[in-house]
Design a protein that fits this description.
Helices cover about 75% and strands about 0% of the residues. By secondary structure, the chain is mainly alpha-helical. It has one domain: Cytochrome Bc1 Complex, Chain D, domain 2 (Orthogonal Bundle). Helix 2 crosses helix 3 and helix 2 packs across helix 4. It is globular. The two termini are about 20 Å apart. It comes from Lottiidibacillus patelloidae. This is DUF3243 domain-containing protein.
């Protein structure tokens, strides 16, 4: 099963990666840009596996680049405390 199949597993996975990046000294600006790039990749290359991902994909498709950055930043905030470490 892929981490993309389950919303809670996906959030935990992202939270773990965020904690790892912060632990390695990555600053918020870089994390924000990486989150945007991940969102862009997922929107273009990965089929949504659950309803939550489909909503994000639909929002991403209609958003301006500025709004996409906002979505990416909100996802970072959402998972900040969801890591399993």
């Amino acid at each position: 099963m892929s981490v993309l199949d389950n919303w809670d597993q996906w959030k935990n996975f992202l939270g773990d990666r965020l904690q790892q990046a912060q632990g390695e000294g990555m600053d918020g600006k870089v994390i924000s840009e990486v989150a945007y790039e991940v969102g862009e990749y997922l929107a273009e290359q990965v089929q949504a596996k659950n309803p939550q991902e489909q909503v994000l994909a639909d929002l991403w498709k209609v958003a301006s680049e500025e709004e996409q950055h906002a979505i990416a930043n909100m996802m970072v905030k959402l998972v900040q405390n969801d890591g399993t470490h």
